């Protein structure tokens, strides 16, 4: 049941769930905390926000796992390249999710582990 005034507002909140992952650039673990807070606040008001918030949260948790593994792999020399690649992939996939959400299209993050159903 949607409690938002317009579908546009609903899409905006869904988009903010994806964009809030950029808070990780300022706050440690903000890439997880941002989507978690927005999703928790709005998940009962909109099915779209609930669905997109879960996608954003699952992807950011997955990316954090991959980043920790890459950081460990610095020991054998390939970790730095993986960290750079993961940073770019994260940026690109977030932007793609934002654009698709604003256009009302469904977007599934690649490489995302479905942790929260």
Give a brief description.
With 117 residues, the chain is mostly helical. It is built from 4 helices and no strands. The longest helix has 26 residues, at 47-72.
List keywords for this structure.
membrane, MamF_MmsF, 117 residues, DUF4870 domain-containing protein, elongated, transmembrane helix, transmembrane, mainly alpha, 4 helices, single chain
Could you say which structural class the secondary elements and strand pairing correspond to? mainly alpha
Averaged pLDDT, please?
92
Helix content class: 55-70%
Number of helices: 4
Instruction: Characterize the main sheet.
Output: none
Oligomer: single chain
Instruction: Choose one word for the global shape.
Output: elongated
Q: Strand tally, please?
A: 0
Portion in beta strands: under 5%
Low-confidence stretches: none
What is the radius of gyration computed over CA atoms, rounded to a whole number of angstroms?
A: 15 Å
The arrangement of helices and strands along the chain is HHHH
Distance between the termini: 19 Å
């Amino acid at each position: 049941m949607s409690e938002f005034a317009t579908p546009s507002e609903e899409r905006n909140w869904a988009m903010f769930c994806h964009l809030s992952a950029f808070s990780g650039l300022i706050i440690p673990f903000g890439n997880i905390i941002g989507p978690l807070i927005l999703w928790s606040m709005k998940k009962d008001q909109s099915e779209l926000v609930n669905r997109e918030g879960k996608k954003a949260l699952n992807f950011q948790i997955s990316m954090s796992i991959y980043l920790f593994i890459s950081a460990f792999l610095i020991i054998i020399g390939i970790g730095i390249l993986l960290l750079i690649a993961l940073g770019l992939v994260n940026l690109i996939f977030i932007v793609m999710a934002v654009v698709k959400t604003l256009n009302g299209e469904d977007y599934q993050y690649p490489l995302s582990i479905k942790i929260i159903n």
